[in-house]
Amino acid sequence: xxxxxxxxxxxxxxxxxxxxxxxxxxxxxxxxxxxxxxxxxxxxxxxxxxxxxxxxxxxxxxxxxxxxxxxxxxxxxxxxxxxxxxxxxxxxxxxxxxxxxxxxxxxxxxxxxxxxxxxxxxxxxxxxxxxxxxxxxxxxxxxxxxxxxxxxxxxxxxxxxxxxxxxxxxxxxxxxxxxxxxxxxxxxxxxxxxxxxxxxxxxxxxxxxxxxxxxxxxxxxxxxxxxxxxxxxxxxxxxxxxxxxxxxxxxxxxxxxxxxxxxxxxxxxxxxxxxxxxxxxxxxxxxxxxxxxxxxxxxxxxxxxxxxxx
Length: 310
Fold this sequence. Notes:
Blueprint: E1 5-9, H1 22-34, E2 39-42, H2 54-68, E3 74-77, H3 83-95, E4 100-104, H4 113-127, E5 131-135, H5 137-140, H6 146-155, E6 159-164, H7 169-178, E7 183-186, H8 192-197, E8 202-204, H9 212-224, H10 228-245, H11 250-260, H12 277-297, H13 303-309
Parallel strand pairs: 1-2, 1-8, 2-3, 3-4, 4-5, 5-6, 6-7, 7-8
Helix pairs in contact: 1-2, 2-3, 3-4, 4-6, 9-10, 9-13, 10-12, 11-12
């Protein structure tokens, strides 16, 4: 499996009493399919997996596969504190015929490189599916390094991609130069152009939940058209949104952005709390400006997308 394009870690809508709204969840998936993203991830941090029970996660993955079918690749997140739990999510992904799994480091445990590799290999063995690794030391406490990649890639051919979210350009350079068989997916939004310049052909981005066409436009400019001047103009328009999302209320902002796009979200689960009125006004102004500016830049294969989901 080759990872190319925009991969959206989908949100999980909630009902007024905090339960998962399966109807609204299906609507989110249909919206993303219509918006022409290239793949959907279930069970990521944007989907609030950490605040869900195992049964909820298993049912969401099965529902996602039912809704998506073969229309787009489905990647199922396996993140958990316990390796044993991650293995169960991997088995479930295999059972529903997901296209790939997302494998990160277990949070809080602070495993060594060898221990982290053993964790990843146990999950891989349970699924037997293509693996997108997820390196996010800011949340997990450890970074996947050269020793980790050496171990897992020699042990299994399933480790074919990585969502790289360390924010360290040296890590990007190391992956591109030393592990060319691992497809790099940008996981640090304001470095998207740098990732594309170093050969990344995909971008795993939460903002594509509500401004998917604009994310597709940047991908197409840099990867398909090789027009980095155009890409820089699009990125300039997108940076205010990226700055806002990193302001401390990431999931809440993504969900409110989805409300602006006409989707039902139902808020967030504790301990998170919704944006206040001032924050909502600020985000709406940023999104409105972003759409105007990108629409003025794009002229080509993405223009029909921008008009469709505006």
